[in-house]
Specification:
The protein is an alpha/beta fold. Helix content is about 40%, strand content about 20%. The structure holds zinc ion.
Length: about 210
């Protein structure tokens, strides 16, 4: 057997001998967790309709997924990427030509240090062997408290702006986000992508929150 294959196999088996990232008790079997922890995730694996847009969700936004997403998003527990993106890969994802992460504003990026949806999107894109595409930027996200429904929609629509330097165009895309609640961000992003000429816009989220 060639040396590089031996090294690859060695790495593969060493990876398997790491403890599960959730229970730290059993060995890793799938996407950095053990078989039991994987099976006990609050699986949904379904398509939900939000704002008339079909969105694939891997899990329900319930324990422990809610906590894991918070750790990944706000507490720099970036090692959870493999697990969270792994749940997306267990969905029956459509054939697309690019993956579009949900953008966050520069203010949030500075505050957080990274865009959690971009990390997940990169992971999924690698798996699908397609590029990550970021043609839309997001302006400052302010609190929507005190706004009526219509004002909220208008406010969120103005947050998404076309990145004018982008000349690339993809027809079939997959939006990736961590959590979907009302779906207003996905709707606003989809609208902008349509304006750019996208004809088939799909969306997948790690977890769907109950409305
Ligand atoms: Zn475990």
């Amino acid at each position: 057997m060639p040396m590089f294959k031996l090294i690859q196999q060695g790495k593969h088996w060493l990876g398997k001998l790491q403890p599960c990232q959730l229970c730290h008790h059993d060995y890793q079997a799938i996407h950095s967790v053990c078989q039991d922890c994987w099976q006990q995730l609050p699986w949904a694996c379904q398509t939900v309709q939000r704002q008339e847009i079909p969105v694939q969700i891997a899990c329900h936004y319930a324990y422990p997924m809610d906590r894991l997403i918070q750790l990944f998003k706000y507490e720099q527990k970036l090692y959870l990427e493999n697990l969270l993106a792994g749940t997306l890969l267990s969905l029956n994802l459509p054939k697309v030509s690019a993956v579009v992460p949900m953008p966050i504003s520069t203010e949030k990026l500075v505050q957080r240090g990274y865009n959690q949806s971009l990390l997940l999107a990169k992971h999924v894109a690698r798996h699908l062997n397609v590029p990550v595409w970021q043609p839309i930027t997001r302006l400052k996200q302010h609190s929507q408290k005190g706004l009526c429904r219509l004002e909220r929609i208008e406010d969120i629509d103005t947050q998404f702006q076309m990145n004018t330097s982008s000349k690339l165009r993809y027809r079939k895309v997959l939006i990736i986000d961590d959590v979907i609640t009302t779906g207003s961000s996905i709707r606003a992003l989809s609208q902008k992508l349509e304006e750019l000429g996208c004809q088939q816009i799909n969306a997948a989220c790690v977890a769907g929150a109950k409305l």
